[in-house]
Write a structure and sequence with these properties.
By secondary structure, this protein is mainly β. It is built from one helix and 25 strands. The strands form three sheets. Strands 2, 3, 5, 6, 8, 9, 11, 13, 17, 19, 21, 23 and 25 form a 13-stranded parallel sheet that branches. A ten-stranded parallel sheet has the order 1-4-7-10-12-16-18-20-22-24, with no helix packed on it. A two-stranded antiparallel sheet has the order 14-15.
């Protein structure tokens, strides 16, 4: 458990920097308190520090996490991971602790009403040969207060694989064990106010399977960010790629040589007033199977976004 933490202070927390020629491995197996993490926070008016890891391989297993957390008026730091080979993020921990990477700001109900907050969530930057998320692990930028969430930038030279759902140990009021999808998300929650950040992905192959998802959401006051994906091959057999918008939406842009989808690529507006974002797909081949679709819609008085598909060879 590595922590740079200055609680209730106006002083900035220090940076956490790990630079090694070997592997970095965090494993929460058998740890009931979920203390297997790299954690940087400031719960006062200061800023949380940055987290920088440079290693051969980086792994968080069984719900272990790399987290930057802010509260009140402080910004969270940037999280930067660079692996010369692979990054593996696995599992959701009991009691709903999310495994993987999270950069977040949470504020009390009293503070959430303060629209003059200057807090912002830092960026998440990941570079590796391969990136794998399994069993409910997430890369997440989250705001549950008054702030803008940060951008997520992924530069993965070979393959991104987002697979499966992780079950929490908690049981909901209906007696059903909740599940959490593996995924990449930038979100303003129902308790938050601000703009959600962009998700930018550059990779050779992107595979989303068995409930995995990429999602930009804004459920309160503000704009949803863009999703920009550039890849050679994209295969969707999970939740898909979506933008859930409760105000004005931005754009979803996908550029790939080949796209095979049995799930939904969507941009939707669920607010009373507000517009959905546009969807632009540039590809040689787009194949939708088993109910796969590209959707842009609005359930309120706002306008749904435009859908533009440029399929040079095949579209069906």
């Amino acid at each position: 458990y590595w922590c740079a933490d200055r609680k209730f202070s106006s002083v900035q927390a220090g940076d956490i920097i790990i630079d090694t020629t070997e592997d970095v491995l965090l494993d929460a197996t058998g740890n009931e308190n979920n203390n297997t993490s790299i954690f940087n926070s400031n719960l006062g008016n200061g800023n949380a520090g940055n987290i920088k890891i440079n290693a051969r391989n980086i792994s968080t297993l069984n719900g272990a996490a790399i987290t930057s957390f802010g509260n009140e008026q402080g910004n969270t730091g940037n999280i930067t991971l660079t692996a010369r080979e692979n990054i593996l993020l696995d599992g959701i921990f009991q009691n709903s602790f999310i495994g993987g990477i999270q950069n977040s700001i949470t504020q009390s109900e009293e503070t959430t009403s303060n629209l003059e907050s200057t807090a912002n969530v830092g960026s998440i930057n990941i570079t590796a040969q391969n990136l794998t998320l399994t069993n409910g692990a997430e890369i997440q930028s989250l705001v549950a207060g008054v702030a803008d969430s940060g951008n997520i930038d992924l530069n993965i030279f070979d393959t991104i694989s987002i697979d499966g759902e992780g079950e929490t140990i908690d049981v909901n009021e209906d007696g059903i064990t909740d599940s959490v999808p593996s995924g990449i998300s930038s979100r303003i929650s129902t308790l938050g106010t601000g703009d959600s950040g962009d998700i930018n992905i550059l990779t050779n192959n992107l595979f989303i399977t068995n409930g995995g998802e990429i999602d930009v959401s804004n459920f309160r006051i503000g704009n949803a960010g863009d999703i920009n994906i550039k890849a050679d091959t994209i295969e969707l057999d999970g939740q898909g790629v979506s933008k859930t918008i409760v105000n004005n939406g931005q754009d979803l842009t996908i550029s790939a040589t080949s796209i095979i989808s049995s799930r939904t690529i969507s941009g939707n507006d669920r607010t009373v007033e507000g517009n959905g974002g546009n969807i632009s797909i540039d590809t040689n081949s787009l194949v939708a199977t088993n109910g796969g679709s590209v959707d842009a819609f609005s359930t309120g008085i706002g306008n749904a976004g435009n859908i533009t598909i440029d399929a040079k060879i095949k579209l069906f």
